From TrEMBL, chain A:
Keywords: Acetylation, Cytoplasm, Nucleus. One of its GO terms (molecular function) is 2 iron, 2 sulfur cluster binding. This is BolA-like protein 2. It is found in: Cytoplasm; Nucleus. Coiled coil: none annotated. Interacts with GLRX3; forms a heterotrimeric complex composed by two BOLA2 molecules and one GLRX3 molecule; linked by [2Fe-2S] clusters. It comes from Suricata suricatta (Meerkat). PANTHER family: BOLA-LIKE PROTEIN 2, BOLA-LIKE PROTEIN-RELATED. The gene is BOLA2B.
UniProtKB/TrEMBL annotation, chain B:
Residues 55-120 form the Glutaredoxin domain. GO terms for molecular function: 2 iron, 2 sulfur cluster binding; metal ion binding. The gene is GLRX5. InterPro entries: Glutaredoxin, GRX_PICOT-like, Monothiol_GRX-rel, Thioredoxin-like_sf. It comes from Suricata suricatta (Meerkat). This is Glutaredoxin-related protein 5, mitochondrial. Keywords: 2Fe-2S, Iron, Iron-sulfur, Metal-binding, Redox-active center. One of its GO terms (cellular component) is mitochondrial matrix. Monothiol glutaredoxin involved in mitochondrial iron-sulfur (Fe/S) cluster transfer. Receives 2Fe/2S clusters from scaffold protein ISCU and mediates their transfer to apoproteins, to the 4Fe/FS cluster biosynthesis machinery, or export from mitochondrion. Required for normal regulation of hemoglobin synthesis by the iron-sulfur protein ACO1.
Length: 86, 158
């Protein structure tokens, strides 16, 4: 299975209709395949953190079986705008 | 954000030094074994396990010796809030528990945190709850007063 940052980014963008996705391959810091993702999607609106993370986990269910460490941040477009203004 | 993250990092360092001398474990922290009937992987067993204590965590390693950075972060966040009385299960001791808890909570990674029998999330979620104040509130609902409240009061009164 191909597990590149680009692959994960495209999949998240497509499946979660994300307007912004950042994927960082953190593997060099760790002992096995690791990623950190930021997903900005309107699909997260009105959803608590747990449900947002579950959406991401579901989207990458197959890939996560081969990923050792996975960090995620899930924002709505509104939150993302505010974050950028900081 | 960077402030509270920094605090966790500081705690990590402190812990790193302390762990070497051994026996820094808080009096209330129980490193709960996964045994007691062998193979704690079934949904019924796990259901009972997560409901047995108000705060339950599943870690790689133990609170005094976490074997993974994310598990360590969970331990340190609980420590910052002065949560001493929690049950910790080491999934590295029990492959059945390791897979079973993932299936039970439908969550692909370890660590996992349960409050009052309810799945809360992993390290990222606990960290964000710590940062946005939700954790203080959730602990309060369980009758646990976060130590950070007292710390804040001290600062305010100065």
């Amino acid at each position: 299975m191909e597990l590149s940052a680009d692959y994960l980014r495209e999949k998240l963008q497509r499946d979660l209709e994300a307007e912004h996705v950042e994927v960082e391959d953190t593997t060099p810091n760790r002992c096995a395949s690791s990623f950190r993702v930021l997903v900005v999607s309107a699909k997260f609106e009105g959803k608590p953190l747990l449900q947002r993370h579950r959406l991401v986990n579901t989207c990458l269910a197959e890939e996560l079986q081969h990923i050792h460490a996975f960090e995620q941040k899930t924002l709505t477009p509104e939150q993302w705008t505010r974050e950028q203004q900081k | 954000m960077s402030g509270s993250l920094g605090r966790v990092a500081v705690a990590l360092l402190r812990w790193g030094r302390g762990a070497g001398s051994g026996g820094l474990q808080g009096p209330g922290v129980r490193t709960a074994g996964s045994g007691g009937g062998g193979g704690g992987g079934s949904a019924e067993q796990l259901d009972a396990l997560v409901k047995k204590d108000k705060v339950v965590v599943f870690l790689k390693g133990t609170p005094e010796k976490p074997q993974c950075g994310f598990s360590n972060a969970v331990v340190q966040i609980l420590r910052l809030h002065g949560v001493r009385d929690y049950a910790a299960y080491n999934v590295l001791d029990d492959p059945q528990l390791r897979q079973g808890i993932k299936d039970y909570s439908n969550w692909p990674t370890i660590p996992q945190v349960f409050l009052n029998g309810e799945f809360v999330g992993g390290c990222d979620i606990l960290l964000q709850m710590h940062q946005n104040g939700d954790l203080v509130e959730e602990l309060r609902k369980l009758g646990i007063r976060s130590a950070l409240l007292d710390e804040k009061k001290d600062q305010d009164s100065k």
